[in-house]
Amino acid sequence: MESFISNTADECVRVKAASAALNHITQTITAETVIGIGTGATAEVFVQLLAQSGVEFAHCVSSSERSSKAIQAAGLKEIALADCERVDFYVDGIDEGLSNGITIKGGGAALGREKVIACMAECFITISDEGRLVEFLGKFPLPIEILPAAKTPVVLALQAMGGKPVQRDGCTTDNGNIILDVAGLDMSEPAELEMRLNAIPGVVENGIFAQCPAKHMAFSNHLGVRWLSLK
Ligand code: 5RP
After folding, report:
1. What PANTHER family does the entry give (predicted)?
2. pTM of the entire structure?
3. Cα distance between residue 68 and residue 77, in whole Å
4. Is the pLDDT of residue 171 over 80?
């Protein structure tokens, strides 16, 4: 019973953040608008609301196989990321975020395609509960997608940087790779760290979204939404 109540409350909080993103998008949506869909429970709430709204737009582009299933189940149109030339809005959950738009993502192991879409998007909007707004990054271990064959050299490189990488149990990404969750890295210069980590041979992508930060961030609680708009 307790878990039912808390799931319902979580859902309610997710609906608030996702509705705020939808309201923002519908102010400028047209029949040509392309909407990128993130991955996770909050992104799936957004998909439901988008479908229920009945607003006309061109199609979705999905960041994961999980989200493609949600998009299809909701009856929305989707084009493959491989065929996508532009994205107007990208809406996604986050694991942690600073009020300047820099976030950590990858809790759902979809960070690779998520970053491609976030960086293509004209407007990246994050949707999450208020607990994910942080003053300093790093409480959430940083997800890094790597080539399985490069596991040992990448682990050693991360340890040399002060990181404590742990392979995520039973996790193979949509791209056939594995995820290392890395605590202990100095996250004080996220943009530099994002580039440094991606320069390690064998790293496919890391979960710091600093080069492509959010333009708007919706942080919700059971009472409402705090909406941040960044330059
Ligand atoms: C997936 C992600 C998710 O957006 C993040 O983990 C938040 O998910 P949820 O909405 O389920 O809390 O980065 O790779």
Report:
1. RIBOSE-5-PHOSPHATE ISOMERASE
2. 0.96
3. 10
4. yes
Whether residue 2 is contained in a domain is answered as: no
Index of the ligand 1 atom closest to the CA of residue 128: 10
Q: What is the mean pLDDT of residues 120-137?
A: 98
DSSP state of 168: P
Instruction: Give the closest residue to 96 by CA, choosing from 125, 134, 63, 129.
Output: 134
Q: Write out residues with Cβ below 6 Å of ligand 1.
A: 38-42, 92-95, 105-111, 114
Structural domain containing residue 159: 142-207
pLDDT tens, residue by residue, 61-106: 999 999 999 999 999 999 999 999 999 999 999 999 999 999 999 9
Position in ligand 1 atom list of the atom nearest CA 41: 11
Shared domain for 157 and 200, answered yes or no, is: yes
Question: How close is the Cα of 129 to the center of ligand 1, in Å?
Answer: 11
Pair (109, 177) in one structural domain: no
Candidate from 14, 16, 39 with most ligand 1 atoms within 8 A of CB, to mutate: 39
pLDDT over threshold 90, residue 7:
no
Ligand 1 centre distance from Cα of residue 41 (Å): 7
Shared domain check, 157 and 90: no
Residue nearest to atom 8 of ligand 1 (CA): 40
| Residues 162 and 179: beta-carbon distance below 8 Å | no
Give the per-residue pLDDT at 4: 42
CA 159 – CA 102 distance, rounded (Å)? 24
- Residue owning the nearest CA to atom 10 of ligand 1: 42
Q: Which residues does the annotation mark as catalytic?
A: 114
152 and 47 assigned to the same domain = no
* Residue 1 resides in a domain: no
Question: Would you state the pLDDT for residue 115?
Answer: 98
